[in-house]
């Protein structure tokens, strides 16, 4: 940090850079909420037969009699190359079956070592990662600090040009997230010994943020196998089509990004050979999940990677062979208001008071969720229950509108994701309630990619999208969204800035809860965004599949223990 820089200056610089990187991954991350698969160019081995449910073996009916498990997801798997990793959940977990990350969250939202057995903070700028002494590649070679340093260096290569990983926070990496072409080291990511790596950040960072934003997404590659491949060839090298040396429980055997990923067990897995010899990720439309669970062609679904339509919940719950569960409410149906186009806070307050969110929750979501104000839900450790959501009050809304500068001849443009059928219906309800207030809106539906492009341009008044704020570390997302010029909201506030400055380095849960509570209360008062609802999504699994828990986090942490009984 330069001595003349204030914490506010640092945060503004951070947000500007973070915004550039987040813009590259947000559209993909938001697509996790969609129920339909996106089309696109196929990667790896294609197989047209895989597009139908009847094309793959199931756990109950494997043609060879061996155990096979099919995981049903509704998001396209765009990459299995750790060097091309982004913020998309299904890509991360599909890749992590082969290449373990340093650390992962478990079902209790606690950090669990995967390749690393410990991560400690020397101070607010230096973090030590220790690789598990037992960690081995499938060829019997140990996983070492050299593998970690090599992978980090390649993630910062301008030849690979991955903008999503946000490595600009580390010493020796440019503000664009890259090192100089041909660089052979990174000042801020260095080997201490064969099993230990030190990470040095430019600005103070909490251990929580380091673990969540970096340790969960760094998936080391075997330097002794691919270290001689020129870095400008790594993004497309054929080795990644069939990696023969892995650190995880499975290796990929075939891949069609729009239809499936097939795996075979890594019998040499250092945490124990998987009990399931073959595993498939099946990519289907949400409307196909019920039929697949009913027939046994899909054995398990995941809360956020498998978007079961609300209308199928009761039918799936009625299946004798299936167990269902609901995840914690973490997926926030966020509504962002462009404060540059809608600058009057009294108008924005009026819009919030005029919405009967409980009616929407009960009628459209059948009660599967909760109402909150701001960013945090009850699923996270920093949720402040004393932040009572604003209640529907049309008379108060009309009084606030009368005090505002609203021009009744104006029409607000309300942009909505066309792929989210539930919120398309909710938007109609909201628009009708705003009409009763005296505010005319025009709902414009568009696909998620167009919506993200529109959001980035700032050419909107109001925009709604499903947004999952990481419960253990929502800081990065909130700092960006409330980052003033260039952010979706265009909103900036001194009290919010002060709270975010403290959050950046805090680890104490109660103090973090206090600071996030300040931010959520400010959202109630200034309303640059509001939450329409937070969704509790359904997951399901065949009763004969044991050891598998379809929780939002930790789903695949112990996949080697999954088994089929009966």
Characterization of the model:
The protein has 566 residues and is an alpha+beta fold. It is built from 15 helices and 21 strands. The strands form six sheets. A six-stranded mixed beta sheet has the order 14-18-13-17-15-16. A hairpin with a 5-residue loop joins strand 2 and strand 3 (111-113). It starts with 6 loop residues before the first helix and ends with a strand. Mean pLDDT is 89; it is low at 1-7 and 16-56.
Q: Would you kindly provide a brief summary of this structure?
A:
This protein is of the alpha+beta class and 566 residues long. It is built from 15 helices and 21 strands.
CATH C-level label of the largest domain: Alpha Beta
- Tally the structural domains: 3
Mean pLDDT: 89
Provide a count of the helices.
Answer: 15
CATH architecture of the largest domain: Roll
Which stretches of 5+ consecutive residues score pLDDT under 50?
Answer: 1-7, 16-56
CATH topology tier name of the largest domain:
Dipeptide-binding Protein, domain 3
Number of strands: 21
How would you name the CATH homologous superfamily of the largest domain? Dipeptide-binding Protein, Domain 3
**General shape:** globular
Proportion in β-strands? 15-25%
